[in-house]
C-alpha cells in the first residue's frame, strides 16, 4: 500500500501501521483514513499529505 508524507513536518503515514492511537487501524489505506484525521506529530490536515514515490 502507498505511504504518504506530511509536507509540514515529514511524518510518514504507513498504512501497514495505521495510527491506532488516533483511531486508524493497521491496514487502513490513506484514502480510507477519515477526512478529519490530522497528522499525529504536527496536527496538519490530511490535505497536507503527499504520496511517496
Mean pLDDT: 97
Task: List segments where confidence is low: pLDDT < 50 over at least 5 consecutive residues.
Answer: none
Class based on secondary structure composition and strand pairing: mainly beta
Largest sheet: 3 strands, antiparallel
First-last Cα distance:
12 Å
* Strand arrangement across the biggest beta sheet: 2-1-3
How much helix is in the residues?
Answer: under 10%
**Total beta strand runs:** 3
Provide the succession of SSEs: EEE
Alpha-carbon Rg, integer = 10 Å
Shape summary:
globular
Q: Beta-strand level of the residues, as a percent range?
A: 15-25%
Q: Determine the number of helices (DSSP H or I, runs of at least 4 residues).
A: 0
Summed up, what is this model?
With 53 residues, the protein is mainly beta. It has no helices and three strands. Helices cover 0% and strands 15% of the residues.
Notes on the structure:
It is built from no helices and three strands. The protein has strands spanning 4-6, 12-13, 49-51. A three-stranded antiparallel sheet has the order 2-1-3, with no helix packed on it. The mean pLDDT is 97.
Features:
mainly beta; 0% helix; 53 residues; 3 strands; single chain; globular
Set out the fold topology.
Blueprint: E1 4-6, E2 12-13, E3 49-51
Antiparallel strand pairs: 1-2, 1-3
